[in-house]
C-alpha cells in the first residue's frame, strides 16, 4: 500500500465552513467531514466549531479512538498532518460556547465559579472510599461530576441506598480463631479476591482521559471482576484488550430497539471471552436527573452511539444524551431470544426491585438477578436494594432456588462505601456487591493508582472487620450475624455520605468546602 502524502496545515485551515468544506485534525490525521456534518449524532455545531483546526482535545474524552475511522468513508481520510504547519486557532474558537461545559483534561475545571482554590491531598492520605468522593467533588469538571453524582428527582432513593446500611447492626461472635481471614469469593463460578465487582458506569472519560481501561487494569491487578458498560467512552475491544490473561469480565447490556445490533454485541462479547451478560431491565426510559440536566452535553456520548449513528438530545444532560437507543418495549417474552444469543454466557437481570420479579427471572431460566435501582438514578422512592434483599432471598429459597441443584445468585448494588456494607449484604444472602461511583471517583481523582488504592482500602477493611465479627471466611458470615430489626425504620442523622451530597443552593451562595 502506498503511504498517504502529508497534508499541509495551511490547507486544512482553509476548510473551515460548510461553504469551503470542513476538514478537521484528530490524532495527527486529517479528515474531510463535510458530508458527515448532518449525520453526526452530536449535531453539526460541535464539528463546525473545530472546522479547519485540531479537534483532538474535544474528540478524545468522549469517543473511542477508531470512531472517526469507522464512520467515515476511506476516501475522506486525507492523510497525516505535516507537523508544525497548522496555524494556531483563533482565540474565540478555543473557548466553548457559554451554554456548554468543556470536558476536563489534565487540569480539571472547577465545579462552579467562585470556589477557593483546592489543594488535592496525596493518595496516601485517602483512607476511605468516601475520601475519593470528597476529592472528586472539588476537582472534577462540572459536566462529569453532575453526570456521575446525580440521582433521580429529589434523590431520595440515591441517599437511601446508602443510609439503609446504617440500620443493619452486627452481632459479633467472640473467641473464634481469626488468626487467618479469607475474604476471597466465587461469582458465577469465577474466583475473585473479594465479594465485590466493579459495576457498569458509563462515560469514563468524563472523569479520566484514559477512561474505563483504567478500571480494567486495576481490576486485573487485584483479581476483581469488571462489568463492562454498554455506554463506555472506551470501546469494548479496548477494555478486553487491556485485560491480563484469564481476567474475568462481564458485560452490562442495554437492549437496543434494533435487535440485530444487540445480537451483534452479544455475539462479539461471547467471542471475546466475556463470562456473563447483565441485562439492564430498569431503564425503559432514563430517569429525570436534574443536576445532570442542568449541564448541556456537547459531542458524541458513547462508543455504541458513535458506531450506531444514533441521534440524541444534547440539551438535557449526559444521561438523556446517551439513552436514545434503549428499547422501552423489552419484556419477559424477549428473554428467550437474548438467552439464545448469549450461548454459554450466564444471563443476569440487572435492576430487579421486588421479590416477584426475582422469582420470575428464576422461572424464565436466568442465572441470577441484581437487586438495583440504577444507583438511585431512575425511579425516586424505589426501595433500597438492601431493604428487599432478605425477602427476595427467603422467597427464592422457599421456591427451591439458590440450591446446588437449582443455582441462582443474587447481587446488589448502590450506596456501598465500606467493606462492612458488603459483609451485611453477604450475611443476608447476596453473592457479591457491585460498586460503581466510588471506583469512578477513585479513577477520576488519581487514575489507576487511585482504583488500586480503593481495592487496598476494601481489603484492609475486610480483614479487620471479619476478625471483629468473628468470621474467618465468608461462609461464616451468616444471617444471625446481623440484626435487621431496624432495617425498614426511618433514616438517622448526617453521615460523611450526606456531607458529600451536593444540594441546590440559592443564587450567589457558594458551596461549603
UniProtKB/TrEMBL annotation:
Here the segments flagged for biased composition (Pro residues) are: 85-99
Predominant location category:
mitochondrion
Task: Give the Enzyme Commission number.
Answer: 1.1.2.3
Cite a GO CC annotation: mitochondrial intermembrane space
Q: Where is the protein found, in the record's own terms? A: Mitochondrion intermembrane space
Question: What protein am I looking at?
Answer: L-lactate dehydrogenase (cytochrome)
Q: Does the keyword Nucleus apply?
A: no
**What sequence ranges are listed for the domain FMN hydroxy acid dehydrogenase?**
121-487
Taking every annotated instance into account, which residue ranges of this chain make up the domain Cytochrome b5 heme-binding? 4-82
Its subunit composition reads: Homotetramer.
The record's listing under PANTHER family reads:
L-LACTATE DEHYDROGENASE (CYTOCHROME), S -2-HYDROXY-ACID OXIDASE-RELATED
The protein's required cofactor(s) are namely: FMN; heme b
- CDD domains in UniProt: FCB2_FMN
Show the segment(s) annotated as Disordered: 79-115
Q: What is catalysed by this protein?
A: (S)-lactate + 2 Fe(III)-[cytochrome c] = 2 Fe(II)-[cytochrome c] + pyruvate + 2 H(+)
Q: What class of enzyme is it?
A: oxidoreductase
The entry's keywords: Flavoprotein, FMN, Heme, Iron, Metal-binding, Mitochondrion, Oxidoreductase, Transit peptide, Transport
Its BP terms in the Gene Ontology are:
lactate metabolic process
Highest taxon of source: Eukaryota
Name the InterPro entries on file. Answer: Aldolase_TIM (IPR013785), Cyt_B5-like_heme/steroid-bd (IPR001199), Cyt_B5-like_heme/steroid_sf (IPR036400), Cyt_B5_heme-BS (IPR018506), FMN-dep_DH (IPR000262), FMN_HAD (IPR037396), FMN_hydac_DH_AS (IPR008259), L-MDH/L-LDH_FMN-bd (IPR037458)
SUPFAM superfamilies in alphabetical order: Cytochrome b5-like heme/steroid binding domain (SSF55856), FMN-linked oxidoreductases (SSF51395)
Amino acid at each position: 500500500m502506498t503511504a498517504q502524502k502529508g497534508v499541509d496545515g495551511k490547507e486544512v485551515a482553509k476548510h473551515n465552513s460548510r461553504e469551503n468544506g470542513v476538514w478537521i485534525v484528530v490524532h495527527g490525521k486529517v479528515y474531510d467531514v463535510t458530508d458527515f456534518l448532518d449525520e453526526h449524532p452530536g449535531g453539526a455545531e460541535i464539528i463546525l466549531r473545530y472546522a479547519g483546526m485540531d479537534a483532538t482535545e474535544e474528540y478524545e474524552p468522549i469517543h473511542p479512538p477508531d470512531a472517526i475511522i469507522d464512520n467515515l468513508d476511506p476516501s475522506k481520510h486525507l492523510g497525516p498532518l505535516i507537523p508544525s504547519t497548522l496555524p494556531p486557532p483563533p482565540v474565540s474558537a478555543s473557548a466553548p460556547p457559554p451554554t456548554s461545559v468543556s470536558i476536563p483534561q489534565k487540569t480539571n475545571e472547577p465545579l462552579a465559579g467562585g470556589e477557593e482554590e483546592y489543594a488535592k491531598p496525596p493518595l496516601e492520605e485517602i483512607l476511605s472510599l468516601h475520601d475519593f468522593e470528597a476529592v472528586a467533588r472539588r476537582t472534577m469538571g462540572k459536566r462529569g461530576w453532575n453526570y456521575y453524582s446525580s440521582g433521580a428527582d429529589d434523590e431520595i432513593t440515591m441517599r437511601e441506598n446508602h443510609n439503609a446500611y446504617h440500620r443493619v447492626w452486627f452481632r459479633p461472635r467472640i473467641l473464634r480463631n481469626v488468626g487467618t481471614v479469607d475474604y476471597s469469593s466465587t461469582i458465577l463460578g469465577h474466583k475473585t479476591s473479594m465479594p465485590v465487582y466493579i459495576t457498569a458506569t458509563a462515560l469514563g472519560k468524563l472523569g479520566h482521559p484514559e477512561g474505563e481501561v483504567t478500571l480494567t487494569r486495576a481490576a486485573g491487578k487485584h483479581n476483581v471482576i469488571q462489568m463492562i458498560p454498554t455506554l463506555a467512552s472506551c470501546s469494548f475491544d479496548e477494555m478486553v484488550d487491556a485485560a491480563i490473561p484469564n481476567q474475568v469480565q462481564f458485560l452490562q447490556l442495554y437492549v437496543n430497539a434494533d435487535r440485530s445490533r444487540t445480537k451483534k454485541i452479544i455475539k462479539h462479547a461471547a467471542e471475546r471471552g466475556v463470562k456473563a451478560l447483565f441485562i439492564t431491565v430498569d431503564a425503559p426510559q432514563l430517569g429525570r436527573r436534574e443536576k445532570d440536566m442542568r449541564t448541556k452535553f456537547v459531542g458524541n456520548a458513547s462508543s455504541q452511539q458513535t458506531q450506531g449513528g444514533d441521534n440524541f438530545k444534547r440539551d438535557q444532560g449526559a444521561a438523556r444524551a446517551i439513552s436514545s437507543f434503549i428499547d422501552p418495549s423489552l419484556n419477559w417474552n424477549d428473554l428467550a431470544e437474548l438467552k439464545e444469543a448469549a450461548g454459554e454466557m450466564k444471563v443476569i437481570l440487572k435492576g430487579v426491585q421486588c421479590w416477584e420479579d426475582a422469582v420470575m427471572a428464576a422461572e424464565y431460566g436466568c442465572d441470577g438477578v441484581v437487586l438495583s435501582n440504577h444507583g438511585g438514578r431512575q425511579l425516586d422512592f424505589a426501595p433500597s436494594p438492601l431493604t428487599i434483599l432478605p425477602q427476595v432471598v427467603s422467597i427464592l429459597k422457599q421456591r427451591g432456588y439458590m440450591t446446588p441443584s437449582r443455582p441462582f445468585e443474587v447481587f446488589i448494588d448502590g450506596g456501598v462505601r465500606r467493606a462492612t456494607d458488603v459483609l451485611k449484604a453477604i450475611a443476608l444472602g447476596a453473592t457479591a456487591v457491585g460498586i460503581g461511583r466510588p471506583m469512578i471517583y477513585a479513577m477520576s481523582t488519581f487514575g489507576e493508582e487511585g482504583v488500586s488504592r480503593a481495592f487496598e482500602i476494601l481489603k484492609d477493611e475486610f480483614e479487620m472487620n471479619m476478625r471483629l465479627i468473628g468470621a474467618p471466611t465468608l461462609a461464616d458470615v451468616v444471617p444471625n450475624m446481623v440484626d435487621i430489626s431496624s432495617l425498614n425504620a426511618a433514616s438517622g442523622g448526617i453521615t460523611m455520605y450526606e456531607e458529600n451530597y451536593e444540594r441546590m443552593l440559592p443564587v450567589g451562595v457558594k458551596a461549603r468546602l
